[in-house]
Amino acid sequence: MTDILIGLFLLIGGFFALIAAIGVLRLPDVLMRMHASTKAGILGSSLILIGGAIYLSETEITVRVVAIILFLMLTSPIGAHMIGRASVKDLSSKNDSAESGR
Amino acid sequence: MIPTITAGDTLRFVWEWVPSLGVNVSFYIDGLSLTFALLITGIGALVMLYSARYLAGHVHQARFSFYLTSFMLAMIGLVTSDNLLALFVFWELTTITSYLLIGFNHDATKSRRSALQALLMTGVGGLALLAGIILIGTTAGTFEMSEINAMPGVLTGSVMYLPILLLVLAGAFTKSAQFPLHFWLPNAMAAPTPVSAYLHSATMVKAGVYLLARVHPSFAGTDVWLWTLTIAGAVTMVFASVMALRQTDLKLALAYTTLMALGALTLLLGNESGYTITAAATFLVVHSLYKAALFLVVGILDAQTGTRDARQLFGMARAMPITAMAAGIAALSMAGFPPFLGFIGKELKYAGALAVASEPILVAGAVLISSALMVAIAGIVSFRPFWSKSGTPIPDVKEAPWPMLVGPIILALLGAIFGIFPETLQSIVTPTVAAIVGNAEPAKELRLWAGVNLPLFLSIATFVLGFLLYAYKVQLRDWLIGITTRAPSFDNGWDRLMAGVAAGSKALTRGIQTGVLKHYMYVTFATALVALAFTLFTQTSGIPSVSWPQIALWDWLVFLLVLLGTWLTVVTNSRITAIAGLGVVGIGMAMIFILFSAPDVAITQLLVETLVVVLFAAAALKLPELDKDSFGKRPFDALLALGFGVVTTIILMKVTTGPIDRELTTFFETASWPEAFGQNIVNVILVDFRALDTFGEIAVVLIAAISIFALLRAKPEPQAEEDQP
Amino acid sequence: MEQLLSLLIGVLVAASVYLMLARNLLRFLFGLILLSNAANLTIFVAGRLTPGAPPLIPDGVDAPVSEVANALPQALVLTAIVIGFGLFAFALVLAFRAYQSLGTLHTDEMRVAEPKEQK
Amino acid sequence: MNLFLLNLLAAVVWAALWGSFTLFQLTVGFILGFLVLWMLQPLLGGPGSYYLRAYRIVRLILFFIYDLLMSSLRVAYDVLTPTDHSNPKILEMPLDVKSDIEILLVTNLISLTPGTLSLDVTPDRKTLIVHAMFADDPDEVVQSLKNGMERMVREVFE
Amino acid sequence: MSWFLSLPLIIPFLTAIAAYLLRHSASGKWVSVAGSALGLVASIALMAIVLDKGVVAAQMGQWAAPFGITLVADLLSAVMVLITAITGFAVAIYAMGDVTEAQERLGYHGLFQVLLAGVTGAFLTGDLFNLYVWFEVMLIASFGLLVLMGGKEQLDGGVKYVALNLISTIFFLTGIGLLYGLTGTLNFADLALKVEEIENQGLLTVVAMMFMVAFGVKAAVFPLFFWLPAAYHTPSFSVSAIFAGLLTKVGVYALIRCFTLVFDHDIAFTHTILLWVACLTMVVGVLGAAAQSDFRKILSFHIISQIGYMILGLALMTPLAIVGAVFYLVHHIIVKANLFLIAGVAKRLTGGTEVYQIGGLYKYAPFLGVLFLVPAFSLAGFPPLSGFWAKYIIVKATLDIEMWFVAFIALAVGLMTIYSMTKIWAEAFWKNHPDGIEPRMEKLSNKWAQLLPIAGLAVLTVFIGMNPEPFVQFAERSAAQLLDPSDYITAVLGDAQ
Amino acid sequence: MATYVFLDWAISISFVMVMLSLAVAFIRLAKGPTLADRVVALDMMTVSIIAVCGVAAVATGVYALLDVALVLALVGFLATVALARYAERADARRKELTND
Amino acid sequence: MNSVILRAGARLLALLLVIFSIYMLLRGHNAPGGGFIGGLIAATGFVVFAIACGTEDARRALRFDPGSIAGAGLGIALLAGIIAAIFGDNFFTGQWLFINETEDDKGIPLSTVLVFDIGVYLVVLGAVLSITFALEESV
Ligand code: NA
Ligand code: NA
């Protein structure tokens, strides 16, 4: 039973992680892509970590997992804000031409 | 001491110096050493007296005396050393002091050039001699010349004889300025005249002759020895005497006659007969006496009149009677007139030449020509400037002060005294000859009148020819100048050689040390690749086996991730993309560490990678964009890189085939908790088992921080700011 | 797996050599990072690989009960990573200052210490 | 949040990290926390006094988790279906919360809510710039944010 | 006992920390001098012990070898440590007259002492990876010193120096990884035993080549020396003196250590390569010097050429050749450091180092002239100075095994060395200053701080030259230890092995 | 037994998914086009790796992996911030230059 | 960095990171962590802070000059090695003291090894900050 729960957490988490990444790839502009990475990304990895916590079922692990998730929720939006700020500051020069080439 | 030696005995003192290398400071005094030592000290004392006045008031007079004294000591050491390496030490010391003395007038470019030329020429010989000495030591088992000379055939019978001989001769010939290694000596006349008199006429240049005499017992007696010395000596002799005639500078004329004398001595030492060796021993003394005297005379002329040009000096005898007298006596000795010692010397030379084992006529002819020229030169140097009436004497010239006169007078008079009382000289000539050829060929008697014989006729012929040459000296000189200016000059050759060395080394260095970092790196990598690949393909065989099935899907994915990150970093022309690519590689590395059980390393890798990104992002703000780069543009770089990658992979695959010795790790695993009280083995290794590594490592980090701080805080110099974009 | 990582190290080495041979100092720095990574990985791989067993001693026992990964190369790599960071940071700042002072990152144009015109 | 609470929090976090809520660990954590707070005082700014309302916190957390789930599903939907985003816009929302921690919470929570993403707060701290995916009616979006997240955060810190 | 091995390492570190913390005070330089003096005392003590007891080893942390890190001093290590301390002491004094206050504030003395510590550590360690760590300590300290207060020239030179040295560092690290992968150990003594058990000896040779390249760069051999002439003429003179004296020698030391103790399994292959490398290094270095006209650039290229002699000694691998290498190593450090110090004084007096643009030193600073002639003629191999014996032993070793051509090269290179030294002498000393400057000694702000170390090192050069016997005997014992490492191995691993 | 198999499969599938997410995010990283896009992609990759750590922890039972995840969560943010700040400043700088 | 959000977050993060770093330092002997990792994490905290609030504030928050912190750290690490001399042991021999030692439990260990690790922590922290601050200030 627990195994199934764990498995579900892992599967759903993996699914959201993948979705987030596809979002980052597919969505049309950088702000939209950020929506994907901040939301689905965090959810996906959090679910997987929770699955892990249940699987390993030790206080120490659980505490750690909670810490990771809180940390992600604290940092990821700040990161998004930083990126957003950078890309919005000047919408006209959004296409960073000098840096864009390969 | 002197009576002991003249009685035919020898003295030997030994101090161990570097016994591990077989080097002793061992002094061996026999007739040969004594003769030289007496010449060195005797002439040396007179020259010093002379130069005390000659250089009076010169700012560097003290230095001069110091060099001269040092030279004298070195020279004495040279001629008394029994140990060949000790001899070599003194040999080189004379080279150095000679260098410093030739360059004494160091403001003049010519002096500096001459000094260098002398140093390098004798230096070449010195190095050859060193090699020769080493080989002698190896062949004979000792460096003590007295012991080697006591082992007949130890060298001549060895397979190494020829190389040893050639090396030793190279040393001797350069030092004694034998043709064609002679050209430094006339240039060495840039030195103050006392130096020319002492070093470059009487003593140092005779060190080569001394060496030939010293090794004579164990070297001579072979055809190579005979012919090399004879030919070199004869050619030098003739060439030098002709060149002497060509000179207008009296000092240079004397320099070339010195060359002639050195050639004569060399020629004579080629033989083993009592005549030739006696001739050599006598002529050695003769020449030293008259030549030093004449040099000093020329120095006086130069000092008192301001010129040494033969074409400007006439009838100075009235103003400088004492000098003129000294010059006259010395010149008569030089020209070989009786009753001066020069006459005995010349007679013995002829006798010696005729005693030469083969081709005596040819050799005697050479001696004849050179001796005749010597007569002419003697006239040019000491007759004309003092007695000739064909020009106006330089006005207001005074006699030189007495300390300058003592030397030439005594030296000249000695030539006369020994000529009249040859038995006084005999007492050291005999042991000298004995030292060279042993008692089997005893020294010949020195006599003014040896009876009517072939040498006497040759002497007379010499005078006749000499007078003729003197009479037609101007025509001859012009003719010679005409020839020699067209002929290639060794001195110019030297300049071309020096220029060639400079240009060649510059070209080579420009080709290697290009100043372009890319070249440096290319060569470095290429060298490493060649070294590794060559070794890999010649020293090992087989291809490493790869067991693919063991590799999990995860591993492939991580592999792919790192690959992609690397690819991105290489192909991008955007800095930030490259940094991101590196970040991906870093993350991939961390994942490898995670997958293969290295959490500490993974965490560190991630942290460090992040800091790298932070630093890059900060620095990139003030750095320019990347230029365009693509594979097509740098095919050779790509090839080198590819080769490097392939070789690295092969080596690593071979190294990791088979298990590793886990002795160390096993110890760490078992000792970590019970003995070092830690459960994280990696950390226990870091802070306990290998704490010293970690200590060094944090020192690196600290120093990096200090250095970076210093780099950033150091205020760039003003001109650097101007160029800032 | 050692073989696969050997291959990977080869790729890293090739890429870094190619980058370091570029004339732009920044590319050199990129190459430097890659090469450092390759060297660290070499040590790691040379110590052989063990998945899923970090060199930690569980509570209550004196030594690892089953085989754990080779700890020594890990310690070495850790040291090398930190040292590499120090060196890299210096190199980066040096490039930065060189650019400020010399006005270029193009190594062909860095000819102050060894100027073109030699007397 | 006053310093004492922060300190206590540090002690708890410490004990939690060790996985042992013993008196010893809590004490060590408290002392350590004190030291760190002392160290970091210049960056924490002046002390403020806040009443911690457990209920509101719990409510906020639950609301937030729900929102996060919803927004993730929304992203999933957008990603998996042919995209049609009628009206993405950048909006400005007046901010009533004042303290750092409130602003942080509000902006972070807004970012984790469906359709909106905090881009910036103006330097005067009075306006929040938000990127909204579906901003047919910008005012409505702003109002729902103010009444939702911001209000709840305000209440927590009242 | 073990502390005698640790102290030469601890003292410079403590000094560095003290000097760094006092970097804004005037006492920093005195701390540096005092620390160097203490370090010298410790090195002398270590030398006395090694002379008395033979190879000594200390297990750091009391973890038995090969598990922990072992510090070990045989005669070679001890003499290198001693010579490092001597040079360090001399340069520390010299720095009082050479280093600016701004440089001191940026931490000059701390960096300098850490450099000494790194060099000392490299000489003392008996562990391959620990050697890498000391190499890095030394390297990063040298980076810092090179660019301290640097202008364009220093930065440019620094870029090349850093780039090439980093590459070599990574080669070294890779080599360590590979060797560990083959043997499972890092301790030199243990390696010496373990390499014999490797089945694939060819592969060991490949790994040996990795080390040869890595150390080759450090030692500045052909064709890996580029970094040296690119950078050594740029930093302050006390820095370039210590670089010139010590840094490349650490590479040579590492080559000697590794290629006598560990990689002696296929001498026919490895040492033949070393032989070629040595000859080319001698020739190219000396020709490079001939092409230069800058005081320090000439000296820099001569470092390369003389490294060739040392490598030659190692390549020949006969007892006498190793004696020569050891003797050369010791002699060269003293002489070359001194020449750079003299170049510093010359620069201060004449305003430059480009020999054609300066002059007058002999006339106005004759004492400096004498001080220059001693190391210069020693370098050129004139007797009775230290360089003569060094050259003599190497040439004899070459002739003993009838390598005529190699002997010819060694001698010819000696001649070219004379050429370069006299170029400096003739232009900077003999010639008048083209701008009429009178380079009088009074121009030095701290005359004795600069002249005393120069004089001291010159006296040492003359002393070794006049009294070479103990040094030759020492080198012989040292060579015997290197060629038969059983004492070394026993000292490190104990009798159990 | 059946549940065991399910968990096994779940782990594998989950792993493949997070790895794929890594790869997909990488594509965005490579494509750009703007700096901000790349930073978003890198951020996404960081999150993916945290997920990988989680899955790997379950798969291997090595909870040290969670420490790695924790560190990554902490520092990944720093890289994002640094790069984003770079992007912003670089933009400003470029504008400055074009205005001059 | 002129960002209200970042500044607010950075304060919190810095606090958490420093605490976390000390935790990683202290448990390093028994679980992943140690002086390096701890020092790097602590440095990360201050770097975040420096980016958000500027290096001037960060320097004030650090209270000591980072270079001096690193220097002191090296000194501490060195002393940890030298202390062994007092006990007649070799350089870098760990000295251990167990408080409350019982038969089952070793109690709370105090050791020079830990002191050494603290030295490592300080060096890494000080050095990394010295580098980043200096670079930040010159950009
Ligand atoms: Na061996
Ligand atoms: Na210990």
Automatic annotation (TrEMBL), chain A:
Gene Ontology molecular function, alphabetical: sodium:proton antiporter activity
UniProt keyword list: Membrane, Transmembrane, Transmembrane helix
KW Transmembrane (keyword) present: yes
InterPro entries: PhaG_MnhG_YufB (IPR005133)
Bilayer-spanning residue ranges: 6-28, 40-57, 63-84
PANTHER family in alphabetical order: ANTIPORTER SUBUNIT MNHG2-RELATED
Protein name: Multicomponent Na+:H+ antiporter subunit G
Protein species of origin: Yoonia litorea
UniProtKB/TrEMBL annotation, chain E:
Example GO biological process: ATP synthesis coupled electron transport
Transmembrane stretches, start-end: 6-23, 30-51, 63-94, 106-125, 131-149, 161-182, 202-225, 237-256, 268-291, 364-383, 403-421, 448-466
GO molecular function: NADH dehydrogenase (ubiquinone) activity
GO cellular component: plasma membrane
Start and end residues of each NADH:quinone oxidoreductase/Mrp antiporter transmembrane domain: 126-414
Membrane topology (UniProt): Multi-pass membrane protein
Keywords assigned: Cell membrane, Membrane, Transmembrane, Transmembrane helix
Subcellular location: Cell membrane; Membrane
Domain of life: Bacteria
Family: Belongs to the CPA3 antiporters (TC 2.A.63) subunit D family.
Role according to the record: NDH-1 shuttles electrons from NADH, via FMN and iron-sulfur (Fe-S) centers, to quinones in the respiratory chain. The immediate electron acceptor for the enzyme in this species is believed to be ubiquinone. Couples the redox reaction to proton translocation (for every two electrons transferred, four hydrogen ions are translocated across the cytoplasmic membrane), and thus conserves the redox energy in a proton gradient.
Protein name: Multisubunit sodium/proton antiporter, MrpD subunit
Record organism: Yoonia litorea
TrEMBL record, chain F:
Coiled coil start-end: none
Keyword terms, alphabetized: Antiport, Cell membrane, Ion transport, Membrane, Transmembrane, Transmembrane helix, Transport
GO molecular function: sodium:proton antiporter activity
Membrane topology of this protein: Multi-pass membrane protein
InterPro entries named in the record: MrpF/PhaF-like (IPR007208)
Keyword Cell membrane: yes
Entry's family note: Belongs to the CPA3 antiporters (TC 2.A.63) subunit F family.
Protein name, UniProt field: Multisubunit sodium/proton antiporter, MrpF subunit
Species of the source: Yoonia litorea
Automatic annotation (TrEMBL), chain G:
Domain Na+/H+ antiporter MnhB subunit-related protein: from-to ranges: 5-129
Domain of life assignment: Bacteria
Transmembrane segments: 12-29, 35-55, 67-88, 108-135
Location(s) in or outside the cell: Cell membrane
Keywords, sorted A to Z: Cell membrane, Membrane, Transmembrane, Transmembrane helix
InterPro entries the UniProt entry points to: CPA3_antiporter_subunitB (IPR050622), MnhB (IPR007182)
Primary localization class, coarse: membrane
The UniProt record lists the keyword Membrane: yes
Membrane topology of the entry: Multi-pass membrane protein
Family, per entry: Belongs to the CPA3 antiporters (TC 2.A.63) subunit B family.
UniProt-recorded name of the protein: Multisubunit sodium/proton antiporter, MrpB subunit
